[in-house]
């Protein structure tokens, strides 16, 4: 297919959790939608970082969670996973998460997008330029292996963790590398032995000592172990100091190998274990945050603030991965939640630009709560509703952009 000739009502960039939810919802609202993803896979950083837990779905509770905090797609994904093998909702202290089998999640996400006839997905297609006129995005440039093409855009949702925001010239915030949350690099480990339950504590203890003695770098001090589903595997997530430049993935892989060697030497359960897979790149916890029409703050999160346009709810704590102190948790009051206003999903500068997922308008601390996958799903869905309302209220500009027929769409009024 040559997409040069295609007209789309809605355009979503990035097929992470937020982008997928945005694209599916946009298609369900009757918009002819394109989802553009630079890699060959769905799932974004949750896929490349080998995640196994959906966080941010539930209220904080000591008992087993019954229902998701947000309805819509996050509930659909949660129920879809729970109906499949290898998933269960579990409590970690007062936090509830949904543990899943990554393979099952992949199937579920592919089924979700395949069902939408209004949705076209372009994999291995990178958005590399954005043309803006009169504070409106007009076209985007997409590069594939074969071609480079400009397509017209009526409205766009950035689910790319802020890459489109940056390319468009819209204002955004990005903390200095030295202040940003720790990034991570994931390594899959197989053939561990013994009881997996205490292994995360043993890893934390031995890596802290190894970092103190200089056996490994201090930057690796906050690396963690996540046991897998079959008791003999898991993911080693080594901590990486954020950088403004390109990461030296080869050097990071060597550090991961070094950490694994230390674990093999110090912890009996790792003695015969082996590295089974390595992530393609570094996973960032914090990046570009678009400047929106409202900037969600740490105070809003911790006080459980509600908003008139607060359609997305979250109770996940501020989980700030401090470079010097490691993970710092600050909780929302028990049984409460905060709301994210739709204004935080809309660019202050560019009329037809929306954001979903971890690039919405927040301060750095609020992002440390907002960024989890359960919340990203709900944000994606809400960004599509906001885009749809915008399109319904904005006349198409010319014949290249026939306005989608008013009776074909189901956009909420703005
Ligand atoms: C180390 C780490 C551990 C985490 N652990 C958990 C956890 O256990 N549970 C949990 O719920 N959350 C966890 N999170 C948070 C969560 O995984 C992410 O914040 C969330 O998945 C972000 O989703 P997103 O859709 O906003 O962005 P991403 O997942 O980053 O998706 C962005 C997508 O955009 C694509 N893209 C980027 N630029 C372009 C471009 N120019 N053109 C086309 N496509 C582009 C990328 O390839 C990617 O697929 C963790 C995060 C990190 C970093």
Q: Which terms would index this structure?
A:
alpha+beta; four-stranded antiparallel sheet; 414 residues; five-stranded parallel sheet; 10 helices
Estimate the strand proportion: 15-25%
Gyration radius, rounded: 21 Å
Structural class: alpha+beta
Known CATH architecture of the largest domain: 3-Layer(bba) Sandwich
Overall geometry comes to globular
Number of domains: 2
* Separation of the first and last Cα atoms: 35 Å
Ligand kinds: flavin-adenine dinucleotide
Low-confidence stretches: 398-403
Q: What share of the residues lie within helices?
A: 25-40%
Main sheet properties:
5 strands, parallel
- Structure annotation, total helices: 10
| CATH C-level category of the largest domain | Alpha Beta
CATH topology of the largest domain: FAD/NAD(P)-binding domain
Let me know the average pLDDT: 93
What is the CATH superfamily label of the largest domain?
FAD/NAD(P)-binding domain
Output the strand order for the largest sheet.
Answer: 6-2-1-10-21
What is the number of strand segments?
21
How would you describe this protein?
This protein has two domains: 3-175 and 287-320 and 330-393, 3-Layer(bba) Sandwich (FAD/NAD(P)-binding domain); 183-278, 2-Layer Sandwich (Alpha-Beta Plaits). The protein contains ten helices and 21 strands. Helices cover 27% and strands 24% of the residues. The protein is globular, with a radius of gyration of 21 Å. Helix 6 (199-213) packs across helix 7. It has 414 residues and is of the alpha+beta class. The strands form seven sheets. A five-stranded parallel β-sheet has the order 6-2-1-10-21. The chain binds flavin-adenine dinucleotide. Flavin-adenine dinucleotide binds at residues 13-19, 36-39, 44-46, 49, 51, 53-56, 126-127, 159-161, 163, 184, 237, 283-285, 357-358, 371-374, 376.
